[in-house]
């Protein structure tokens, strides 16, 4: 009997589990509780914020042509055409979209993914006390830049949207939308704070990170978008006065892997690859045909002038059999047409359907893997800043023609196109200058995600993207689908239906109710 | 591999004989010999003889004889045998005794294994089903779990995947209770594990299988019991001379069905017709058609039966040998099994070898201990392209067969390369033979498990058991995809080789369970009390990693170090810890009134600390009405018992670490042109996640009539699962995060189960008839805030079964211009024509859109049933077993067109054409409309069908060789038998297997087989 009692006691004693027995820690991921301790944690968190830029819903595409974010905005303008109904943006372009539209909900999610990661970083960065406060302040300023960038996209597309600046729990996520004014005020305040003094370094700590020039440039863009022309001109001048940027790279080399080190790239979404998991899908495609998910429209092609600075209709340099001849070099750098070479070879007509113009800009011609390229996307380039100052000066009404024309000429000269004086002459009216600047902005920045915002702020969205499209492009290429005039709803993205269903405090725009 | 052959060699026999010689003991005390016979004066083997008050005991041998060493010349012995009344006799200075047993009126004295113990069937108050292992041993099927199909009411077993080595059936106990993991808990010799572990047991090693169905019987397994519990007990040694049992089975497995595909001639003509009908020029010229007919140019115009190329009649063999026996102190069972199964798909298969030793030793009257040991090695051979189902490359073998081949391409050209094109300009096919023969995907599985246990009896009424069990499982695989060119009929390369690739993967599972149980049994007068309390801990860990490279220097070099190109590696680790406290109280008054209380508290690492220890209680009661005076000596009713139970069960299959908010890795970016590692929250955790709760009530009757000739068990249950993990959309303003699963949905299953057995003997002729069945009604009760969730072609909606089929109602083929004019506009962009299918316009907008979908079918059988007929006459025995399901639908996709690489069933020759306006199938050319997910089922091949069936699962004829013949061979029993599995099925589905997974619309499962077997079992 003693033996038995001994046996039982021994087993029970051996078996008394420690309290921690049931506390299994996931060995495959980092727990939120134990994160934010070391400088490496801070670096990883920061990288995670930047990584949201690479999402297909924001500055990339999916691994087919379907998904896309900002870089697909040109599809809903007069620049581009979605070649199939399943391509994100096709329905918005036609004007038959609903609040359930995939593109509408994708762009929303793409922006808020970036915002939520930034909020999380900003809420937690100060827990890492082993890193100098100045380092943390700089990192936080970078993250605030990213967040402002996302809010700018939201404000320019959805107009009103929830302004969320702190991490939320599931319960806290039931929030109403803020007004467009509140969003823009937030963007301006944030960008002013981080672009002042030395919060951000003059030169980025690492290539592709935010620096002072990027913050000032985004602020200049923001002022331009909210029509504060005086501040836009001043801020653009601040960028120019940094004396940091140049236009030394030939335009034709810019949107290639080799152009990624150009001195005009102010902020980029960086990619690498192939096969690294951080590749750009928009730069890849089913080789050897040029990308066919979205194509270029004839009216855009027409806006690329000839070496005499004149359009196809009036230029004597136009040779109908070869559109490339004597053309603005930006035509060949931006588009592919029947006389172009692509991947070192000529192109068959079927690979140019339906418009005869495909998109070359940002398309990597040496790619070996579909939808997985190392080509960066340029969010802000120096020419945009120059043209912003020019536009802001003229719009403000306080300018000298010499300065304005000089700014435009910098852009034209790099493209080896004749100066304004040489083509349009001197003594130009305010409206003529505006026309020149807007044209220059279009051909310089096509397919860089700016056209939709420009048309919208110029209040000519439907005039250009629908009326002109139906009159020019649809006539030239009858196979294109119709676009509808639906008024203010066309350039105002509805709040995605899914969001309204999941967030009871969110109310649809009255225009969309 | 060579050591497998040793099994048949002399070495093993010598080993066994040597072991056997070790077990004989010299004894000096009083020896009693005797013989036990039944009412017909036939010897009863296996009856147990026990000297009461001691641990002395033995069992009778094949001749009913026994030898028992008694503690003194005066003793009391007790003789028990299943289905017979037990007897207690006094022995006074006797050397020999003849004992005659009377059959027990009831079968309810049968002892059933229940959770942490066993109980007489008569004393059960919960719903427990058990299977008679004699019925399934020796069946020529590779997986023991499959043998249970149709034998247990309320337990639906489906063989969806019949690939050797991966053929674990789907087991659903009392319906589908959750939207998540529905697999039951399997407990083998007290060690909690899974269905796969049951599947690789040797059926000959299994002593009994019980299924705990209701809350009362299962709640002792707490948070893992909501999907039911299957208890498996393996055989142990018995007191007596060494006994050798041998079973040898060889069988042949033939694919259960063969689709009636068109031959090349019909196919080519049909393809031409299709082109003509759609206004295109025919592809096959008359000369080509002639060549197909004559088979004069088989490299260019073949007539390939692709089904026959990839499927075969495959052999399977199973060898089993065991040695068992024991003395008063030590008992042993040692067994080994070798099974080799070739697959019905060529060049697939599995073989396994396993060893078992179950040992018991009695140290003293109070203390005993034992050890179970098992080792298993299994090798599975298959292609990388999925042999069961499909894969990302659309290369699943059955998918390739139906959708990427055509009969005019040869399987191999005359110059031995695999066929890819024919003499037409049609696109190249995918050759399934190349996948099967050239790709290597070999998996080696090793299993070692063991359990040591000790039992101590003390203070008269108490006993204490402690055990430690460990499992070690390792699986390693080699996947090699060779670099090969694809050729055309002129030896021209049509697709050049791409680099070869190699993946090595390894997964290890380790587990230990420690269990400590204290029992107290007390009988005072008519009061019988049993108490059990226990404490268990369990720890499971899974670790895996894999590595791959591409472009190895040769297809013959298949080691990971041979290349450094595009290296990848992966790896992860998961662990689960459980600590539980359990308790049970049984009370029984005069074998008339029974009450049982069970409870378990389960602490789980899967649960957040705030609710880490959920409690699962249950109560049950039984009343044996037939023991009451008014029924006591009733002529017709020998037993009537009424049972009821109520309790809760849990399901903790909610994922590991689900409550912890993580930063996910691989949120990387590019700084300075190089990869920078990043992290971010990508999905939201539910910090308050908890187990799913199932509450079940059960009422049942056990009855026996005519002195046991007719036995009935009937149960009604109502099972409510709540707190089912379900994901509702969350605002994307949270960052586009994955939504956290919430304990928010509810599902109900209700049903009745019936089991009826009739036994009778007329002279030498004995027979048994059994019927069992269950009717189960499944419905979603709540989906949190959502009205419904449509997921492709299924829907979740309160009031209907989980994943009900959701589609269109077809109303037939439009055959006239009038019908065409009256029909709503069709689906898709092609305008309707005559020959197209007309659908019901549910919302009345005169066109067919996605809004015209409705619930069109049920994925679960409403009725599952089985019949069992067994009879014996002298040396012959015959067993017939049928199994069926009723009230279930399946979809059999078959496009209403003919692709350039697509098999077509011959029924399509009777499709609608302008010259065949009575065709039963729609015209070719409008798939968008004619192949909608709909109720249309005009033929055996098309659309959405009633998938009810009745299957003759097994028929077995055996002959036991008379004793006087085998006595010369010193054998005690030899039985030879012939058996057929799945020889016939009654169903409406002809071209495909009717038994398939609800989501398998394209008939992608590894085909079931019909088997014919010859077997021999011998005992000596």
Task: Describe this protein with a few key phrases.
heterodimer, A: 513 residues, mainly alpha, Serine Threonine Protein Phosphatase 5, Tetratricopeptide repeat, two-stranded antiparallel sheet, two-stranded antiparallel ribbon, globular, B: 1020 residues, mainly beta, Immunoglobulin-like, Ferric Hydroxamate Uptake Protein, Chain A, domain 1, 51 strands, disordered N terminus
Q: Can you tell me about this structure?
A:
The complex is a heterodimer of chains A (513) and B (1020). By secondary structure, chain A is mainly alpha-helical. Helix content of chain A is 42%, strand content 5%. Chain A has 18 helices and 9 strands. In chain A, the strands form 4 sheets. Chain A has a two-stranded antiparallel sheet. In chain A, strands 3-9 form a two-stranded antiparallel ribbon. In chain A, α5 packs parallel to α7. The N and C termini of chain A lie far apart (84 Å). With 1020 residues, chain B is mainly beta. Among the domains of chain B are: 2-100, Immunoglobulin-like; 111-241, Ferric Hydroxamate Uptake Protein, Chain A, domain 1 (Beta Complex), CATH 2.170.130; 655-688, no CATH class. Mean pLDDT of chain B is 89; it is low at 1-28. Chains A and B meet through α1, β1, α2, α4 and α18 of A and β22, β27, β28, β32 and β33 of B. β1 (30-31) of chain A pairs antiparallel with β32 (662-663) of chain B, so a sheet runs across the interface.
Instruction: Compute the CA-based radius of gyration of chain A.
Output: 26 Å
Shape of chain A: globular
Approximate strand percentage of chain B = over 45%
The top-level CATH class of the domain at 111-241 in chain B is Mainly Beta
- Chains forming the largest contact: A-B, 74 and 64 residues
Briefly, what CATH class of the domain at 39-226 and 491-512 in chain A? Mainly Alpha
Low-confidence stretches of chain B: 1-28
